Amino acid sequence: MHTDLVAALDIGGTKIAGALVDRDGTLVVRAQRPTPARESGERVMEAVNGVLAELAASPRWGEATAVGIGSAGPVDAAGGTVSPVNVPGWRGFPLVERVGDATGGLPVTLVGDGVAITAAEHWLGAARGHDNALCMVVSTGVGGGLVLGGALHPGPSGNAGHIGHISVDLDGDPCPCGARGCVERIASGPNIARRALENGWRPGPDGDASAVAVAAAARAGDPVAVASFERAAQALAAGIAATATLVDVDIAVIGGGVAGAGDLLFAPLRSALRRYATLSFVQQLTVAPAVMGNDAGLVGAAAAALATRTGAGIPARAH
Ligand SMILES: [Zn+2]
């Protein structure tokens, strides 16, 4: 039996989380620092080094045999660099080399954060037992990843499955990525809130104008709030249907804060999916909420590292 551990890093625009993860996917040691996202690239790297140093102080650090990193994207897995949109100090930053140096030469696997959560949901979560799956995060952005033929499919660059930036509205609103009508431009939390405001919804006395507040208004029957969630659900359904039609997945797992709206999102999503996923081989496509929660990024980074090292897919897959 393997007893070795993987050091996992989950790097986002607000926090840098780290853990030592065992072969069951249990986080045995944790560390976390805020991301100094507006500071220089070196300052951000200092925060990563701080997290690694905290992990290395654990008596179990010696059992770590690899490092897995899930990072906000885009990432370049082949080149070992990251250029997170929300961390301007990192453009083509050689994160794999720097983390390798900081960990005494442990092998480092880098994937995008959407790929990492996909690895987690496939290993231990809602996509477990599915050989072909799309997993997504719908929150301030929309990300995703793919499992194809039983194995995580990061693609050569580590970004495959980036469903947030496929266009579902040809002449739609310009997206910060440069395209138009992207899934994210319609379905992310900030865009759900923006659309509700543009159509006349107003926040309550607390001034909360987030998607969470729009969800509360929708539950109370506000038709503009309901319509904004329905539009988001429609965009997600079109993107999911396109993905399923292209690569033949049988489940779409959706997590993130917007998915926390529950049936407010999932009911219109399933309904819209029936209108977009029409060919015989995608009609059985199911949609399920993610179950891995806040640790998905860390568990998934570890899973990606293990999958890369064994070359045989994610370990302990249940069928
Ligand atoms: Zn876009």
From TrEMBL:
Alphabetical list of SUPFAM superfamilies matching this protein: Actin-like ATPase domain
Pfam families linked: ROK
Domain of life (superkingdom): Bacteria
Gene3D superfamilies: 3.30.420.40
Listed InterPro entries: ATPase_NBD, ROK, ROK_cs
UniProt record similarity statement: Belongs to the ROK (NagC/XylR) family.
Protein name in the entry: ROK family protein
UniProt organism field: Streptomyces castrisilvae
Source organism phylogeny: Bacteria, Bacillati, Actinomycetota, Actinomycetes, Kitasatosporales
